[in-house]
Amino acid sequence: MLKSLGKIWKRLPPWARTKITRLTQPTFNVSVAGIITDDEGRVLLLNHLLRPRSGWGLPGGFIKFGEQPEAAFRRELKEETGIDLRDVKLLRTRTFKRHVEILFTARSSGKGTVLSREILELVWFAPESIPPEMNLDQQFLIRKVLLPDV
Q1: What domain count does the chain have?
Q2: Which residues of 16-27 are buried (b: 16+ CB within 10 A; e: fewer)?
Q3: 100: which strand partners?
Q4: Which of 138, 123, 107 is closest to 39 using CA atoms?
Q5: Does a structural domain hold residue 5?
Q6: How confident is the model at residue 14 (pLDDT cuts 50, 70, 90)?
Q7: CA 83, 72, 46, 119 torsion: positive or negative?
Q8: Per-residue pLDDT reduced to its tens digit, 65-93
Q9: What are the backbone angles phi and psi of residue 115, rounded to the nearest 5°?
Q10: pLDDT at 5 (0 to 100)
Q11: Exposed/middle/buried for 102, CB within 10 Å: 0-12, 13-18, 19+?
């Protein structure tokens, strides 16, 4: 049955496939986040007011319409912390239901300060000392990137 549907799908003209896809797929939202380190190898974490459970997490935010992911990442960091980034590299992209998250690594060009009402605290943590109540997925990601031999 699935093979038959696949064959039918491939025979449809591109405009019809696009129309069907747009009618049947839910809207996605897209955000950027990143593992940002300073010259001492510490990772920047923000205590977000709006995050469920523990507010601690990677810095980032939502992409605006027409904005490129790296530009959105740089903008969000500048708006929330005043930090300029260097050595920005794409780490990976992942999805969670209707959400697409684009993850980067970067280096900080400053220590930063809280500039947004959405952020309660800004702290530079040693990778092995990140808050234990932080989202486990983000903890794992930080350790995988910054402590690969652990």
Answers
A1: 1
A2: eeeeeeeeeeee
A3: 30, 95
A4: 107
A5: no
A6: confident
A7: positive
A8: 899 999 999 999 999 999 999 999 999 99
A9: -120, 0
A10: 64
A11: buried
86-130: pLDDT as tens digits: 999 999 999 887 789 999 999 998 899 999 988 999 999 999 999
Distance CA 50, CA 63 (A): 17
What is the Rg, in whole angstroms, of the alpha carbon atoms belonging to the chain?
19
User: Interior CA angle at 112 toward 44 and 124, to 5°?
Assistant: 30
Q: Cα–chain-centroid distance for residue 34?
A: 6
What residue type is assigned to position 20 of the chain? I
Q: Which residues pair with 89 in a beta bridge?
A: 105
The span from the CA of 108 to the CA of 20, in Å, is 44
Return the CATH number at 87: 3.90.79.10
pLDDT at residue 39 above 60? yes
Mean pLDDT score of the chain: 88
> Domain for residue 21, yes or no?
no
Is residue 16, in this structure, part of any structural domain at all?
A: no
